[in-house]
Design brief:
Elements (H helix, E strand, L loop, with lengths): L1 H52 L2 E17 L10 E17 L3 E18 L10 E16 L4 E11 L9 E11 L5 E14 L9 E14 L2 E12 L7 E13 L2 E12 H11 L19 E11 L1
Antiparallel strand pairs: 1-2, 1-12, 2-3, 3-4, 4-5, 5-6, 6-7, 7-8, 8-9, 9-10, 10-11, 11-12
Length: 313
Amino acid sequence: MTRKLLLAAILMLSVSLGYSQTKEELEAQKAEKQAEADAAQAEADAIQAQIDALPGWRVGAFGVIGGSLSEFNNWYAQGAPNNASGSIGFTVNGFANLIEEKFFWRNALTTNLNWTKLDNKDISTDSEDFEPTTDVFNLSSLYGRNITAKLAVSGLMEYRTTLLNNFNDPGYLDVGVGATWTPVENLIVVIHPLNYNFVFADNDAVFESSLGAKIVADYTRSIGKVNFKTNLSMFQSYKTSDLSNWTWTNSFSYTFWKNIGVGFDFGLRNNKQEALNFALSQFDPMSGGATPTFDNVDNDLQTYYTVGLTYKF
C-alpha cells in the first residue's frame, strides 16, 4: 500500500513538472512571437509615417456610438413603477486634408447628437418619443500658403450650430485671415487677428455680430488602435467681452476588435450670449425678479459627454 502511494506521488510530481516545463516553453514562444509582432508593427508604423508625409489627400473619420434601453413594470420601489427609458447618441469626427509642398487645405467635421426617452406609462402627459438632448455641429475649412515649413499665411471659415433643435438659431460663422503655425506634426494652431464673427439668431437684442480675433488649436492623431482628437476654438470680440465665446471638444477611442472599440467624448463651452438668451426664455415678468441682462446673468460653464462603443470608418 505504501509503495502504491509512493508511486502515485512520483507520477503526480512528474506530471506537474512536465506541465510546468510545457507552460514555460509556451510562454517563451509567446514572448518570442510578441517581440516579432512588435517589430513588424514598428516597421508598419514607420512606413505609414512615410506615406502620411507624401503630398496629397488624407481622409478619415472615427466616432462614438452609445445607447441604452430599459423597461420597468410594477417596480414599486421607484417613483414611476411602470416606465420605459432609453438613450441613443453618436459622435462623428471626420477630416479631409489636402497637403502639398506650398499650400494646405484642411477640412474638419465634428458632430455630437443624442436622444433621450423617459415614458411614464401611468400618465398620459409625458412624451413617448426620443427627445433630442445633445446637439453639436461644427464644420471648418482652413486654407494656407506656406511661408516656412511650420508657418503659413491662412484663411479660415468655421460654422457652428445645432441640427435637431433651433437650427441656425443661433448659428455662428467665423471668417478671418492671419497665420497658421504647425510646431509639431498633427498640431495646428490658427491665430487670426482679423476675424468677423457672424451670428444668426431670431433674438437680435441678445445675439450680435462683431469683429475680433480668432484662435484655434487642433490636435488629431491615430497611434495604432488609439484615435485621439482635441479642438479648442476661441473668439475674442474687440467690441465687448460679452460677445466673446470658446468651445473645447475632445474625442478618444480605442479599437479592440476589427473596427469596433470603446470611446469617450466630452466638451466644454462658454458663451454669454447663449446664457442670456436662455435666461430670458425662462424669465417670468410676474415673478418680481430682475430682468436678465449681460451684467447679471449666470454664465455657467456648458458641458457634455458621451461614452459608448466606437466604430472606425
